[in-house]
Amino acid sequence: MELPVIDLNAFLQGSRCEEDCRNLANVLRQYGAAAIYDPRVEQRDGDRFLDMMERYFEQPTEVKLKDARPELYYQVGVTPEFTEEPRDNSAYAEKLSTKNKPTPFQGKDCKWRFQWRMGPRPECSKYPELEAEPVIPQGFPEWPTIMNTWGEKLLATGFAIAEMLAFGLDLPRDAFVRLLSRGSHLLAPTGVDVDKYEVGHVVAGFHYDLNFITLHGKARYPGLFIWTREGIRIPCKVPDGCLLVQVGAQLEYLTGGYLEKGFHEVVITEQAKQKAKECKSHWRVSSTLFVHVQVDSILQPLGHFQHNELAKQYYSPIEAGAQVAQELQAIQLKNTT
Ligand SMILES: [Fe+2]
């Protein structure tokens, strides 16, 4: 099945579009994800971005490793394969029925990732590593232009979604947007060589995203599976011309669990192997943007979500930067020593 589509047209034309906003909230509550149509996002920007990223990931390992910044917890530049390890989500997975269990997997993800910071930064912050200068790979003079063009489109979509969602959840319209202003948003494409692994191999183990929402352009290869609120595992199918949005841990926090972070995994599938026969590059690239709450802002349930008893129990106030640091430690990107 294809995910329900939320069309941003009416919102962007200044209409109240209450029904679209409530529909967005309901779809995100049910699926932890939605397909989004934003007329401002053009396929050719996504294609230019994917073409460049395929060329980047196709480079030899030793060339890509020059772009790694472990001292900054890989929050800019490249994260090599077998670095990130999904945190232990077995308590959640155990509750799933047999046919909806995650694909068996242990250890570190075989995906590469490149992170590029988007948008203006705060003038000073308690979390300087989350505000680091970008890395520009050698031999890619077009890098900043292509990254920023694509990233700004996704970011604009992300802010529109945040405003619509606040309205759809009966919060002030700027409830989320004011927290996202000057956030450490990251354009963070992943890459994996489809030829290198067998069908069934896990590229990104069962996990959720630590940020507010995640946006993706449509990938050229299948392989992403998501879990609905009821714990049903479905292949993520996004209609042509649409983007994908997923709920991250920060949005769950701000709604006191009304919206739940969306679990997902990426697996090499038979369909991906078939697709490789017709694609120029055999690297599966995701065009991912992580939209983040500004690091010095407090995460806590907003508005009417504060009054829920569970919210008080499970979502006590925490600085977004501290929450991000905890999550990065849990997935082995930030050493505790
Ligand atoms: Fe993810």
From TrEMBL:
Protein name as catalogued: Isopenicillin N synthase-like Fe(2+) 2OG dioxygenase domain-containing protein
Domain named Isopenicillin N synthase-like Fe(2+) 2OG dioxygenase: residues: 204-292
Alphabetic keyword roster: Iron, Metal-binding, Oxidoreductase
KW Thylakoid (keyword) present: no
InterPro entries recorded: DIOX_N (IPR026992), IPNS-like_FE2OG_OXY (IPR044861), IPNS-like_sf (IPR027443)
Stored Gene3D superfamilies: B-lactam Antibiotic, Isopenicillin N Synthase, Chain
UniProt cross-references to Pfam families, sorted A to Z: 2OG-FeII_Oxy, DIOX_N
Family of this protein: Belongs to the iron/ascorbate-dependent oxidoreductase family.
Domain Non-haem dioxygenase N-terminal residues, every copy: 3-113
GO molecular function: metal ion binding; oxidoreductase activity
